Amino acid sequence: MLTARACALAVLRRALGSGLFVSELLDREFRGARMRPDDRGLATELVFGCLRMRGTLDRAIEQSAGRPMGRISRELRDILRLGMYQLLYLGRIPAYAAVDESVKLALRHGRKGAEKFVNAVLRNAPKEVGQVRMPDRAVDPAAHIAAARSHPEWLVRRWADRMGEAEAEALCLAGNEAPPLTARVNTVRATRESLLAALAAEGVRAVPNPGHPLAVDIEELPRPIPELAAFRNGLFWIQDVAAMRVADLVGARRGERIADLCAGPGGKAAALAASAGDGAELFCVELNPAKAEMVRGNAARLGLRSIRCVVGDAREAGRIPGLAPADRALVDAPCSNTGVLRRRPEARWRLRPEDIPRLAAAQGALLAAAADVVKPGGVLVYGTCSIEPDENERVVAAFLLAHPAYLLDEELRMLPRTGGCDGGYAARMVKRNL
Questions:
Q1: Residue 230, SS3?
Q2: Is residue 385 flagged as an active site residue?
Q3: Please, are residues 392 and 317 in contact by the beta-carbon 8 Å criterion?
Q4: Nearest CA among 325, 330, 264 for reference residue 293
Q5: In the chain, which segments carry CATH 3.40.50.150?
Q6: How far is 161 from 397, CA to CA, in rounded Å?
């Protein structure tokens, strides 16, 4: 039987180099593994917690070990992070258990004598987070925020330069909280009230989310979501309020042809189809075959027959048969993920400053490819889950300069907030009849 800590270690070792979201890595570990539900929950908490608080954990480890992380063998770093996270952030786990289980992992995965080093470091650990030494806030506020709030220093400085230190710290705090589990009602099959009743009948505690009329926050689950009858019967899908608002900006209507570029895994496509009463023609394009299959599977479960998905490159949108002319198009572009770091904590450690201009160039190419897909009088919506102007306003400004047929109609800017929705950006542009 796979233990929670062994599962978490396997995921953490692949988290920064695989290119997959850690949620996907966890799903792969869980698939076919014999694990109790509480062990799956602990593994998830350990993975997300270690990645969110990695910066602070590394400082605590260096302080306890008396050496920089670079001088600690690679195979022991994640074992130490797992142990330190339990000691500093999971008070429900006794300290002796956190240390002993980490020593067992070192015996299994480390070199000879590794278990003694792990035991010594964790037994010498700070007793609480407040005892971890941090840079002096008065001397270098950005360095202090980065260390105390566990975000890359270059990213904190970028935010502080643009929005001020208080806002930068608020963004970090939002990035470190566990996100809510929010569902969107499938209005083709249910109302928010009938969904809440169906969930309650299955022992699910759920409440309306005030941020969107079709959003429901799931607060307590008796079993995994895929096992719920309400889920299997297609009454809802999981989607954050920020993503719902981006889909709303498209304004899907019955009888229209709508192009959804970069459509996987299909949440926004479902929102567009349901908003049109499943009476639009929704043409989805997704480069990744596995994600394209997810779009189709999601549509089938929800009973949304208007969704069609093909595997293709959205940068070649004009060459995809049947895509044009579209009344509306959505470009949900790959991005830095700086608006969703609480959901994708690995992204903060993968991202480098030079990635942002590279991403912006790719985003501009996707938007340009979509320009000819939309017919005159139609709507083009560009969205990201980034909060960086280089990926958002500046990409749109460059597009509008190069495509005078388009006019900016509306922009949506969302900053992540503790207790709020994800961050992101969307711009709605209208194509004129020239």
A1: helix
A2: yes
A3: no
A4: 264
A5: 241-431
A6: 22
CATH number of the 181-238 domain: 3.30.70.1170
Answer yes or no: are the C-beta atoms of 391 and 363 closer than 8 Å.
Answer: yes
Residues of the chain with CATH 3.30.70.1170: 181-238
Please state the rounded mean pLDDT for residues 305-323: 95
Q: Which of 7, 309, 335, 385 is catalytic?
A: 385
Q: Which residue has the tokens 């904590």?
A: 345
Tell me whether residue 293 is exposed, middle or buried, using C-beta atoms within 10 angstroms of its C-beta: 0 to 12, 13 to 18, 19 or more: middle
Tokens of 275: 């908003």
Q: How many angstroms separate the CA atoms of 293 and 310, rounded? A: 9
Report the residue count for the chain.
Answer: 434
Residue 56 CA to residue 46 CA, distance in Å, equals 15
Residue range 241-431, CATH number: 3.40.50.150
Rounded to 5 degrees, what are φ and ψ at 205? -90, 115
Dist. CA 326–CA 210, nearest whole Å: 33
Average pLDDT score over residue span 97-104:
96
pLDDT, one tens digit per residue, over 222-268 is: 998 999 999 999 999 999 999 999 999 999 999 999 999 999 999 99
Say how many Å lie between the first and final Cα of the chain, rounded.
66
Instruction: Give the pTM.
Output: 0.94
Q: Tokens 């509480």 map to which residue? A: 38
Nearest Cα neighbor of 343 from 46, 23, 16, 14 is: 23
Report d(CA 387, CA 418) in Å as an integer.
15
The dihedral of CA 32, 37, 42, 45: what is its sign?
A: positive
* Half-sphere exposure (Cβ direction) of 212: Cα atoms closer than 13 Å: 22
Q: What is the DSSP letter of 30?
A: H
Cis peptide before 265 (omega within 30 of 0): yes
Instruction: Kindly tell me if the per-residue pLDDT of 8 is higher than 80.
Output: yes
Q: DSSP for 294-357, please give it.
A: HHHHHHHHHT-TTEEEEE--GGGGGGSTT--SEEEEEEE-----TT-TTT-THHHHH--TTHHH
Q: pLDDT tens digit string along 387-402?
A: 999 999 999 999 999 9
Least confident of 17-26, 139-148, 280-289: 17-26
Using a 10 angstrom Cβ sphere, with 0-12 exposed, 13-18 middle and 19 or more buried, the burial of residue 431 is buried
